[in-house]
Prior knowledge:
TIM Barrel, eight-stranded parallel β-sheet, 8 strands, globular, binds D-xylitol-5-phosphate
Amino acid sequence: MTSTLRIAPSILSADFAKxxxxxxxxxxxxxxxxxxxVMDNHYVPNLTIGPLVCEAIRPxxxxxxxxxxxxxxxxxxxxxFAKAGANIITFHPEASRHVDRTLSMIREYGCKAGVVLNxxxxxxxxxxxxxxxxxxxxxxxxxxxxxxxxINSTLNKLRQTRALIDAHYAATGQEIWLEVDGGVKADNxxxxxxxxxxxxxxxxxxxxxxxxxxGYRTVIQSLRDAAKK
Length: 229
Ligand code: DX5
Ligand code: ZN
């Protein structure tokens, strides 16, 4: 368990007709990152948003934009997202021919770099690239849609990944964030954080509570409170 906890609302569940207002609202409600889900109807069976939308929301918030690429191939989009104001770019190793090159490229463009592991993807993918990672994202649902149920075997994988990160930190002093994405709610936050996550994506949990009633702030605070239990 770590002392830092970052909450990253996924705008996949936001109202796309008023995205500027939505990202301002989550920042005002205490979000630490904007989680930005990019889907291509090829790597995943859904189609969402690209660099143009990233560029459009960038001036609306100060907090980092955490771009989760569910696309194949990956590399051509990296310069485009970097120019559009992305701060963190993560991708799925199965979707890149040359994972090490893609990670290096993300950092060369001035962003933090990370890989995303699907529920059935082994943590073996991390072993030769730890020094190039700023973030590891574990999917706790199969990627493609918001509002799915948290897959419980992710907890064990979080513990294993936390051990790798801590050992790497002890040996090198290099920090790597551990993010979890999919089905995160107040009722599973305590076990997720106890298993070692320091960054939690929450889409439907945050955006299902109408903000004019203070809903986003209430949910984000309830996620933080639940993590302490
Ligand atoms: C799924 C996306 C997630 C999704 C999470 O492929 O990567 O970021 O928006 O949504 P919830 O929190 O509703 O599971
Ligand atoms: Zn995501």
